[in-house]
């Protein structure tokens, strides 16, 4: 039987789904509702498999499967994007939103089918629900997608299947099934988009910063896969292996990634990047300011490790200490969102590539910094870092950056959406930087009334909602491009639902919460 936190989490997700489709109800809404119902039942099967250790791969054990909340993210993002672009009259991105929604539904349905297929005895009711949901989705896709779009959806599904088999085998206990759906589904879609755009390059078409994101994500993933396979046959901790790692990184970067990016943007990537970063005086000021914040974050890491070494007993960073980094990230993103969003977009891509590359150095124990990084970062581990990789800081960066990267700029006249949609780029700042941080700090220090079945407190959740409302008011004051058009009730409902989801979910909240808040704002 499902426990109460999972039931409440599922109820919150159902409410969000119904809220979104109350605004944008169409033929895809039936698909989304059917997918949500069958994902709820399939989630129970995944949870049962995880408890018995009968799942095909080793998943993160300190959480439930998270299939329902993860299954709805990509379809809802696609549906809300479709509606926004339809109202703006941008047909290309309207069709793109339909492809995103269809892809998300099919990938989520695939994970549900796996859970049903490996459950013994075969769950008859869940099989029937999965079959009905699959029939509705496939019937709708048949009457909505062109042949080329159907091929694109199937390509993403195929990439997801192979990527899942490889990465879930190589990285045990790093993901729950829901987190694997979000992360690997996103990587699969990015890889397919990069291949598609590389084969259909038209000079002058496409924004270089979008190509930069695609190439950077695919490049670091392929780099990791290459070295993972390589170090199966070599000891990665030796100086010879470390020199080979750095040499091959340079070869792959300059010989594969740079030419790939050159083909897409039709200019030298390094010259383009330098010209972009230092194009205006505002950008120079922002870069100097961000460098200072990065140095401050490094200072906190070194100070906490020095504090650990000076104590006789084992010292572990407290929750409040870890939230210092949330405050630093908020201080980083807010000026970028106000003054130069394109610079923030590119800077976030660079930071993601650097974070993942440093994690490779730590994981493979690459000299001379691999062992040092292992020692420094072990202080900040929590129960979510149960696998061989440390991903929480990468999830924090993704949670703040995804609303910026996924913001439909082409469908936004004058660079901003109307109503609550104007807050879409701020979704990460509000949900993670403000809401999650305040809930954690106040809940752990002053909270007394716990939500049933969780460690989260009523006081923390209420304080988080209040803090996010104050943050919205400050955004209105300092960002003149934001015009909410009296959509305050919707914003309050969105913030409240996502804050309740934070209290009950056991998934990576840094990744899940910003996406749901973005969905609500875009609706």
Automatic annotation (TrEMBL):
Organism: Circaetus pectoralis (black-chested snake-eagle)
MF GO annotations: dolichol kinase activity
TM region positions: 12-41, 61-80, 92-116, 122-141, 153-171, 211-232, 244-262, 282-303, 324-339, 345-365, 386-406, 426-446, 458-478, 490-517
Name used for this protein in its record: dolichol kinase
Subcellular localization, as worded in the UniProt entry: Endoplasmic reticulum membrane
Family: Belongs to the polyprenol kinase family.
E.C. numbers: 2.7.1.108
Biological process according to GO: dolichyl monophosphate biosynthetic process
GO CC term, one of those recorded: endoplasmic reticulum membrane
InterPro entries from the UniProt entry: Polypren_kinase
UniProt keywords, alphabetically: Endoplasmic reticulum, Kinase, Membrane, Transferase, Transmembrane, Transmembrane helix
Bilayer topology annotation: Multi-pass membrane protein
